[in-house]
Amino acid sequence: MQNIFNNRGEGHINTAVKIIIAVIIGALILGGIYLLFAGDGGIMGKLDDEVNEMMDYDPEVQGYQVQINEYTTLNDISFTYDGKTWHKANVVGYSEDAEVKYFVSHKSMAAMILQEGDTAYLISTPDGETWTKHKAYTNVRYDKSTILKWVDDAEGGHFYAVFRRNDWGNSWESSDGIRWTTDNLGIHYFS
Fold this sequence. Notes:
The protein is α+β, with helices and mostly antiparallel strands. The chain is built from 2 helices and 11 strands.
């Protein structure tokens, strides 16, 4: 008579069931890893896209766009970097009846001519958030001779502003929305 040394009681069916369970668990783990790292369509790719969108990152474009919402008063001006989240612009030091006469933006910069009482102000921002007063003129005429616009040129472009007061005007330029320069020659109008 032979002694039985294996008394586990495990048969072929138990072993087959364990192997099938191990294969299923392994397939689920591999599927989860594939879903996590499967290129742009995977969870990590989508997470990367969401983080880049939050940071407004675009490797093709240096800088970002500032969008200014439609406004009815100076206190309503707000800006966004991503087109979704709006922030109140920091345009302070002017009365509530101040009127925006001209407004122009380019990439992250914006400038406006603001009329308050009999004084016109040239104010601008490099980022949409903080606005700085640069020039102030009285008795400005708002016809086709007072302008504020963005001009594209070989160096990338610049803001161009002209204030007409009676028969004389002054022109100003800024490529960064911070420093404004003039040629100090003045413009004489014959009208």
